[in-house]
Design a protein that fits this description.
By secondary structure, this protein is an alpha+beta fold. Helices cover about 15% and strands about 25% of the residues. Strand 2 and strand 3 form a beta hairpin. The chain is globular.
């Protein structure tokens, strides 16, 4: 899908649980040319954040390592590790 802000065609992948229905809002990611990674939310698709592949990988590794868990403590029933109730 191409948009006015990012003229190259981007294929957006939605980060939503497989069993989740409805419009979200969800985060979507697209890998573009020249080492670019684009992020947006489904409720505001014209607001796109662009970064590099190296920075995106560093962010993903930080999430996996729990470096951002403190941002979600107590949000939506998340526990101190940022995990929703089971």
């Amino acid at each position: 899908m191409a948009d006015d802000t990012h003229p190259e065609p981007l294929t957006w992948v939605r980060a939503a649980p497989d069993d989740e229905e409805g419009p979200g809002p969800w985060i979507e990611i697209a890998f573009g040319p020249a080492d670019t990674v684009h992020l947006r939310t489904t409720d505001d698709p014209d607001n796109v954040v662009t970064t590099t592949h190296v920075k995106w990988e560093a962010f993903v590794l930080g999430v996996r390592a729990g470096e951002f868990d403190h941002f979600v403590e107590g949000v939506g029933g998340a526990d101190s590790q940022g995990c929703p109730p089971s």
